[in-house]
Amino acid sequence: MHVMVLGAGITGVTTAWYLRQAGYDVSIVDRQDAAAQETSFANGGQISVSHPEPWANPATPFLVLRWLGREDSPLRFRPRASIRQWRWAMSFLHECLPWRARRNTAAIAALALHSQRQLQLVRREAGIETQYDARQQGILHLFFSNADFAHAQTRASILNELGVAARTCTREECIAIEPALAARAHHLAGGLYAPNDESGDAMQFTQALAAVLRQKGVTFHLGTTIKRLCSSNGLIEGVEVSDREGRTGTLTANAYVLCLGSYSPLLVRPLGERLPIYPVKGYSITAPVADPTHAPEVSLTDESRRIVCSRLGERLRIAGTAELNGYNPAIDPARGRPLFDWVEQCLPGAIDPGQATLWAGLRPATPSNLPIIGKSRLLNLWYNTGHGTLGWTLACGSAQVLSALMGSHQQPVPAFPVLAPR
Ligand SMILES: Cc1cc2nc3c(=O)[nH]c(=O)nc-3n(C[C@H](O)[C@H](O)[C@H](O)COP(=O)(O)OP(=O)(O)OC[C@H]3O[C@@H](n4cnc5c(N)ncnc54)[C@H](O)[C@@H]3O)c2cc1C
């Protein structure tokens, strides 16, 4: 049986891995000339099992109001004359209800724990442990105000109940875990340390895994844009594509898995399928480490400013900000400014800002931050998409679950909601 994976980001390539391991003939289609060139290109690098709380939680509506109109705010809503944007925003508000947020947090934690175990298996089986600047030194969440830190103990208890190792730390303990914080530690109220979390370069991981998949006989159709999914009698019959020269054609398989990130809803809409995914833009900067004594080795999350920082070999990656502004991948230097300010304030001298590369990507966000994994209403079309803020964290587990569902048509273990429309 031939399965065609649509999209070669972190989600598509890990999906192809599990399907190939399960014995399918696999091909993969992407408009870019290499894997992981869009949202999976330069994300925050965190395997953040300790951050299952979705953006949609009871505090967020008030924060959005507080940040309204601020160009450097962590979350920015740019209203558009778009029914899709407003529908998504209303669903997001619904997911902010306390019981919805609790349910979503538990489901994401279960998938994240499963995914981390799967990541460990994949990298060993594929032999790519050393190919993506991986670190297994945990994630240290930082709180820069007493008000924020006041909730850290409750949060640690909730994480522990969900099976995630995490403990609160004093300022001194934070510095012992990550000495690079010493320079500006007087601003720090405290931390929460998740020792089992990891970090690594998602783009390098995806490309290393893609190289192994090629050796295993997976066909890559790169530089190939998907124009349309052709359906008849409840089945996908083929994928209409065009190449860089504008030549068109149709690719066929027995089954198809949609992993097109933020663009997933656009391709299935003409088939009557509505996926609640909206692009939420985020930024990162990546720069060579200038002074190793000021560059952290432990991955950091600034909980007060919603910024993450990961050491990737001899580089530092700082990422954050969220903006609802449609399919607009353009880089706005003003939105990147808070990342430069952050590194200057918290890790002075760690990088030379003149050497930094600013990047923006569109997170494929669902209102709940739960991905959409499972079968569509069409008999041979499957979904593994909508991973929002946690696509790197959830990739291997989601792909394993999708492959298990395709093989057995049963709910996989561990149990968490599989959100396919039917
Ligand atoms: C600033 C930022 C920081 C982040 N930090 C983290 C983090 O620290 N940890 C974490 O877990 N997650 C993080 N994320 C989220 C994570 O990066 C995403 O969830 C993940 O990359 C999504 O992967 P994907 O494969 O679904 O989408 P993509 O990587 O976008 O892949 C989709 C693929 O589909 C292809 N495609 C789309 N349309 C077509 C078409 N018509 N024809 C052919 N090909 C097409 C694209 O070329 C692309 O390769 C972050 C995201 C951002 C933006």
TrEMBL record:
Gene3D superfamilies linked to this entry = D-Amino Acid Oxidase, subunit A, domain 2, FAD/NAD(P)-binding domain
Does this UniProt record's set of keywords contain Oxidoreductase? yes
Please cite one Gene Ontology biological process associated with this protein.
D-alanine catabolic process
Record InterPro entries: FAD-dep_OxRdtase, FAD/NAD-bd_sf
Start and end of every FAD dependent oxidoreductase domain?
Answer: 3-404
Keywords for this protein: Oxidoreductase
Give the family from UniProt. Belongs to the DadA oxidoreductase family.
Query: Which PANTHER family does this UniProt record tie to the protein?
Result: D-AMINO ACID DEHYDROGENASE (PTHR13847:SF280), SARCOSINE DEHYDROGENASE-RELATED (PTHR13847)
Recorded protein name is Amino acid dehydrogenase
Species of the source:
Parazoarcus communis SWub3 = DSM 12120
